[in-house]
């Protein structure tokens, strides 16, 4: 859901009143580059709620939306004004006002902060829809998701692009970097291994040069 605009709820407007009873459920989704006019609220999503669980989010990224009237990512009003409920969501990097206006519930959510979170631009990263890639260094999100949420419905062990999540760990948001959930730890060990290998090769080359000076450096098996 991107590049939309309105007076309230630039990307999505949910009327969760008693009469209408609207409920929005988003899984493996991206809400980005939406906005509202003037002093409107809810740059990404506006949720008017008079009951629980009117906005359910799972492994969803809401970023780069704008609103001056509050809730640049999500704004929620009503007698039961819970902004959203759900796990493994990113609501950050929106502009014009606070990322979220209203309380939220759930676990492993990144809300209102971009610390150790590096999102690529909205782009074709594979799959049928545009996504924000989690770039290297996004230690707040990569491998930090709730695994049960990632491997059960509605996520079902895939990200927005259809790429696999788990089975050992998964990331927060709509995008799952490939290369394994241990990419954070294994990536950190690669430079040390490379330096060790380079040092060993350097030693072998130096030794070979020394032996060559004496006419003793030969190819193996000859």
Description:
With 222 residues, the protein is an alpha/beta fold. The chain contains 2 helices and 16 strands. It has 2 domains: 5-181, no CATH class; 183-222. Strands 2-6-9-12 form a 4-stranded parallel sheet, with no helix packed on it. A 4-stranded parallel sheet has the order 4-8-11-14, with no helix packed on it. It is globular and about 70 Å long. Mean pLDDT is 77; it is low at 181-194, 208-212 and 217-222.
Characteristics:
single chain, 222 residues, alpha/beta, four-stranded parallel sheet, 16 strands, globular, disordered C terminus
What secondary-structure arrangement, pairings included, does this model have?
Layout: E1 5-6, E2 12-16, E3 24-27, E4 30-32, E5 35-36, E6 45-49, E7 55-58, E8 61-63, E9 74-77, E10 84-85, E11 90-91, E12 100-101, E13 104-105, E14 110-111, E15 119-123, E16 131-134, H1 147-151, H2 183-213
